[in-house]
C-alpha cells in the first residue's frame, strides 16, 4: 500500500533521467506541506492554551515562553504524525503547481516556458 503523500509512479517515468529531481521536489513539497500544517496547528494550540494558568501562581513570563515552545513542539509532532489533513491538500496543490510550471506545450522545444 502506498502512502497518500507518495509520488505517483507514472510521474517519474514521464521524464526520463529526471527521477531524482522529481523525487527531490516531492520531498520539498511534502516538507513544506508539513511545515504549513504545523504552523496552522501551532496557531490553533496557542489559542487553546491562551487562558491556561492564569491566576496567582502562573509562573510569570518564563511559563509563557515555555508554553509557546510547548505548543510549537505539539504542533510539529501532530503534523509529523498525520495532523488533521491539511498537509495532504497542500501537498497535492504544490505538486499540481509544479506540474503546471514544468508542463511544456506540444511542439515547443524542451525547456520552453509555458505562457
Name some characteristics of this structure:
mainly alpha, disordered N terminus, single chain
List the helices and strands and how they pair.
Blueprint: H1 9-14, H2 19-48, H3 60-80, H4 86-102
Helix pairs in contact: 2-3, 2-4
Counting DSSP E segments of at least 2 residues, the number of strands comes to 0
Provide a count of the helices. 4
Mind describing the biggest β-sheet?
Answer: none
String of helices and strands: HHHH
Briefly note the structural class of the backbone.
Answer: mainly alpha
Helix content: 55-70%
Question: Stretches where pLDDT falls below 50 for ≥5 residues?
Answer: 1-15
What does the overall shape look like? elongated
Strand proportion, as a percent range, falls in under 5%
Mean residue pLDDT: 76
Our measurement of the CA-to-CA distance between the termini, rounded to an integer number of angstroms, reads: 38 Å
Radius of gyration: 20 Å
Protein described:
By secondary structure, the protein is mainly alpha-helical. It has a domain at 22-52 and 59-98. Helices cover 64% and strands 0% of the residues. It has 4 helices and no strands. It has helices at residues 9-14, 19-48, 60-80, 86-102. The longest helix has 30 residues, at 19-48. The relative contact order is 0.14.
Amino acid at each position: 500500500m502506498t502512502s497518500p503523500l507518495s509520488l505517483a509512479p507514472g510521474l517519474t517515468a514521464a521524464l526520463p533521467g529526471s527521477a531524482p529531481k522529481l523525487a527531490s521536489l516531492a520531498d520539498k513539497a511534502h516538507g513544506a506541506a508539513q511545515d504549513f500544517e504545523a504552523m496552522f496547528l501551532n496557531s490553533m494550540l496557542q489559542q487553546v492554551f491562551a487562558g491556561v494558568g492564569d491566576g496567582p501562581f502562573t509562573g510569570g513570563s518564563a511559563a509563557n515562553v515555555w508554553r509557546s515552545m510547548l505548543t510549537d513542539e505539539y504542533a510539529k509532532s501532530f503534523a509529523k504524525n498525520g495532523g488533521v489533513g491539511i498537509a495532504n491538500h497542500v501537498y497535492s496543490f504544490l505538486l499540481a503547481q509544479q506540474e503546471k510550471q514544468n508542463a511544456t506545450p506540444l511542439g515547443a522545444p524542451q525547456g520552453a516556458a509555458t505562457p
